[in-house]
Specification:
single chain; 453 residues; alpha+beta; six-stranded antiparallel beta sheet; 16 helices; globular
Amino acid sequence: MAEIQPVRGWRYSPALSADIDAVVSPLFDVVSVRQREALYQNPLNSIHLSVPRAAGEAPPFAAAARRLARWRAEGVLRQDGLPGIYVYYQYFRVPGEARERCRKGFMAHIRAYDWAEQVVLRHENTLPAAVNDRAELLAALQFQTSATHGLYRDESFELEALLDEAIQDPLCQTEEDYQGARDVLAVIQDADTIRRFQQVLASRQVILADGHHRYEGSLAYRQARELAAGPGGYSGREPWNYHLMYLTNAASDDLRILPTHRVLRELPGGLGDEELLARLATYFTVRPQAEAQDLPELMAGKRWAFGLYLPGGAAYKLRLRPEVHAELDWPTTPEVKDLDLTVLHFFVLEKVLGIVGPDAQRAWPGVAYVRGLAECLQQVDRGEARAAFLTNEVTMAQVEAVCHSGAVMPAKSTFFYPKTLAGLLFTSLEDAVPSAFDAHFAGRPGPAGPRTP
């Protein structure tokens, strides 16, 4: 199944790693405009590589490439001498919980498998423009600036003992990142231990949790390099055949997925609140509630249950009438049809509001995706939104079921928490010796020759 390889990572110099908080950054698809502007003020922050902007007459990607060349020449970034598996722990608290959790994982290169190979599985669709953006950045830098997040399942938790041992000798750690987590990085460079990681992953599929656009960017770049090389012009072992991924165990209780609510900026056709409630009652039981803050607890653990918040503080619990679920006729799998968010998108966005089909719903500017309950309510109270539909989180079991069914979820279904950081580790796609992996790890699992078209 999944072939992984150790990497000779590029990291910030020891002096900069001692204050790693100043140079790490959120991932390109979650960083806000305000966060970007603050981070851009530090000329050494990793955001200049992961989300570059123009510098003078140089367009963003060219400016990033120049900056990277300068950082390497000046020793801002340095390459580790030996290949390794990079251990990455995140200590965090889920909003509303007192308990501190620790998500345990590691970063390595994984072969950039096409979706059809069924080794890396997806649960979301991507936008071509965003994929092209990531592929162009990869081509310009020849550098992977942030790891995507993949999930493997190991009920025996065999690798965790090896991770726990390595994390006792950290390379660097944040004090507290932008989401309140503490991030710790370490490395394993023992060849026998690394081979055990490879053996465990070699028998498993990987589900892509976060970073679909970055992963597809790697696929697009690999395909471009293959096309340029021509038949027989590449071995399949070149670094551009691989993608930087952070891998965590799907069996862990500390793998958290937070809900992403739907906030409606408008109601089509000037729909009023009373008419909205009347239309909803065709498909849902609609029960008024005294306090909007109580909605998450009232919904928790209940199938096809939602909260609704309207201007003036009006709160409702919605629950789909089971007998109408058979009307959900989208051409997808039973696993997807069973999801709360599929029910919400079909019966609310399509049936009640008239936004027909997933494609039209993704393109409709009237819906926004908001994670926090308080922010949902405040947007309605401030008059910035006409309604907020609150939903339960998707479970890991549901993610796995959908992935193995070969289908994808509605847009913005999952929010794996916490997010990984950019800037802890970089990897290069232009190592001087193409066989660097083989020199240290002979007898590796996985294919060794060129890919078949």
